[in-house]
Amino acid sequence: MQQEFHALETAGQIERFLKTYEDTSCEDIKPYLFTAHMLLAKHAFWPHQKINHFTFGKEQLEGFIKKNPQHLEAKYLRMLVQQTCPSFLKYNANLFQDRDYVLEHLKNSSLPMTYKKTILKNTELH
To answer: Is 94 helix (H, G, I), strand (E, B) or coil?
Structure first.
């Protein structure tokens, strides 16, 4: 599922991803769903749709992190969004903290080695 998330490029792919995993009870998948909602903002035509997608995903992800402050993947995903979102959205307050947290805890996580490599590659700030 993690590599599938990183391959999302089109609105159709994102929507299929959301539909596939929307009924999951697995807590580890939820940050990916919330982030996918934020990614839909890039593909929406109308500005209010863009804001709605982004805001919904952001609020859900922030709520998840508040309840699960040590969740490595959630902080990683927030970092990814904060690296690339436009500055006018002012969603970058946790960028360096999340990056540092991810780098500090990645080695001892139970994530597959291939995914750890993906995360390391993506933690390089642009």
So the answer is: coil
